[in-house]
């Protein structure tokens, strides 16, 4: 016989009420970005606001836990479990050289023509001075830590 799923609503950990309005604001802005009209934009440009909001929300949780130490481990784990923050992106931020990484697609070599990382990962000092670099995947203008 299959297991019967019961709905057990588990209360969020202590401190959730402090960050809940900000997470609700991120959710509202994400809905607006998803419903934004696409006319006049390139196909890749339509998802850039969603990538930026995803990055901001994950960075907010990362800063609260690792930089400011304002939230508990239980609340941090709760946010990761309920997808308020991207645990894979945060894992990369903890490694040297990836502190400012904008999205995981920028370091995947499968998504590029020559099997390298995205152009936004190149330090600005190594690029031409008059050239404006914009990532095709997420629209960032340089997330290399060596800038």
From TrEMBL:
Keywords, alphabetical: Nucleus
InterPro entries according to UniProt: BUD31 (IPR001748), BUD31/G10-rel_CS (IPR018230)
Major location (coarse): nucleus
GO biological process, one term: mRNA splicing, via spliceosome
PROSITE patterns recorded: G10_1, G10_2
Family: Belongs to the BUD31 (G10) family.
Compartments, as annotated in UniProt: Nucleus
Protein's UniProt name: Component of the SF3b subcomplex of the U2 snRNP
Tree of life domain: Eukaryota
Gene Ontology CC entries for this record: spliceosomal complex
């Amino acid at each position: 016989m299959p297991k019967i799923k019961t709905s057990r609503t588990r209360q969020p950990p202590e401190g959730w009420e402090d960050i809940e309005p900000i997470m609700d604001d991120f959710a509202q802005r994400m809905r607006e970005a998803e419903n934004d009209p696409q006319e006049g934009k390139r196909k890749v440009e339509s998802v850039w606001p969603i990538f930026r909001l995803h990055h901001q929300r994950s960075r907010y949780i990362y800063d609260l836990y690792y930089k400011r130490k304002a939230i508990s481990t239980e609340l941090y784990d709760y946010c990761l479990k309920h997808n308020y923050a991207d645990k894979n992106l945060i894992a990369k931020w903890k490694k040297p050289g990836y502190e400012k990484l904008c999205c995981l697609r920028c370091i995947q070599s499968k998504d590029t023509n020559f099997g390298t990382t995205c152009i936004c990962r190149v330090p600005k000092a190594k690029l031409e001075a008059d050239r404006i670099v914009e990532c095709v995947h997420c629209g960032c203008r340089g997330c290399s830590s060596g800038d």
